[in-house]
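Table 4 source record.
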Amino acid sequence: MPEQPPEHRTPVDPWAGVDTGGWDLPSAELPPLPPTLDYPVPPATRQWSAPPVGTHPVSPPPIGTHPVSPPAHQPPPAHQPPVAYPPPHARPAPPPPPHARSAPPPPPIAGRSAAPVRPAPPAPVPKQRRGRGPATPPPGREAPKGYPPPRPRRRRRRWPWLLLFTLACCCGCPAYYGLPISSQYPASAALPEQVADLSLRQDDSSAETAKQLEREVRQEHLLAEDTFAGVYRTADGKQVTVFGGTGFRLTPEADADEEITRLGERYALEASETVRTGVRGRYERCAVGRPAEGEVVVCTSVDHGSIATGVFTRLSVADSATLLDTLRTQIVQPKQG
């Protein structure tokens, strides 16, 4: 007998004859489900068309409120004009409740077209400053439409300041250092007969002393143009010996120190003192000496046009310096022109 296919065989119950009565288990009863509430049916809406171009778009409803749909579209009667509704922006929107300010915006309602997007306002054109011409774009960028092409930046000229500095250096420095020279050189020398209470001695001893001093001045100062020497005495016995010469001197301060050093051994001079003359370019030194004849004060005054040295007896250093200034003012006269 041929074997039948499985779909033609008689089904066999595998649990036939088995006692299955003890398999019934008690089941726990679940609480009944609550009744389902019916969702309210929204009212009928009418087709809404977009506002004409140029009008303000309709502002969305406040957050947290239900949008109110307008009634169904009904054409107005033929004998009545269409009702003019106020523009959307004229109707004030109620303020949103405090609890709904952070809620997300409601989804768009089906069947209503999206509000037109308002175009962004044009960028403001910068104001032009009066008298400076139109504004130019920043350097390194292409000028936008409506702007003039960028002009090259004008370089500041610094030559006036450089010229002034050069003139100050070329004219100011020579004028500062050349004014004392021009006012002190050239000069001439002549011994007056009377200076204050001093009288020029004309005896043979005084004349011989004056000639010896002139020879020494000529030997020590080879560039001297003129030399002078004389012996003055007061009525009370004070004696003053003055000598020197005229000629150009580039370093009068160093020449004053050298003159005091040259006379130091003859008059046994001590350390020299600097005396302020109050004249720019003139330097004076004084020192106390103790030769065999007695105590003396030696002062020398040097400027760019002359040198004058005095040997004073029975006078202090300050009085000797003052008297030497008086003598050289009367003896040495700068040449004008």
